Amino acid sequence: MKYLLILIVLLGLLSCAENKQPSDSNNIKNEDIAKDSKYQAGRSLYITNCATCHNLRYELTGPALQNVEQRWKDKALLYAFIKNSQAVIAKDAYAKDLYNRYNKVEMTQFTWLKNEEIDQLLHYIAIASNKKD
Questions:
Q1: Model confidence pLDDT, tens digit, residues 5-39
Q2: What is the pTM of this model?
Q3: Which residues in the chain show pLDDT less than 70?
Q4: In terms of Cα–Cα distance, which of 24, 98, 110, 114 is closest to 61?
Q5: Given this structure, which CATH class describes domain 2-128?
Q6: 69-100 burial, b if ≥16 CB within 10 A, otherwise e?
């Protein structure tokens, strides 16, 4: 168990290092991203709150976040899941399937996040996860 925790932390740190460079995706130039306050705020939220368990393109403790918005039937449900996953798992089949698929690891509750902050986070994910390497 101790080694699993160490592995998870190391993978999270690696994912942070991978995502530090601004992307050049969606025809947005690096200098434009540097000026994009919504992207920068979302990047900060991702690194601080998500990168330990989620990578943009590959699975860690939780699913990869690339195209996350397209996988949910409605944006309000995604926001509710981010804020309190267990409440959504209790009533939504897709959320319950995610929970089961990822070994019933409970996602941290982010009840303090405002919708505007989730918008920033999703903006960052949409751009950064589709960058060209």
A1: 444 444 454 444 444 443 334 456 676 777 889 99
A2: 0.75
A3: 1-29, 31, 133
A4: 98
A5: mainly alpha
A6: eeebeeeeebbbbbbebeebbeebeebeebbe
Q: Identity (one letter) of the amino acid at 44? A: S
Q: Return the structure tokens found at 103.
A: 């070994």
Domain boundaries, the chain: 2-128
Is 60 in contact with 15 (CB distance < 8 Å)?
Answer: yes
Return the HEC string of the chain.
Answer: CHHHHHHHHHHHHHHHHHCCCCCCCCCCCHHHHHHCHHHHHHHHHHHHHCCCCCCCCCCCCCCCCCCHHHHCCCHHHHHHHHHCHHHHHCCCHHHHHHHHHCCCCCCCCCCCCCHHHHHHHHHHHHHHCCCCC
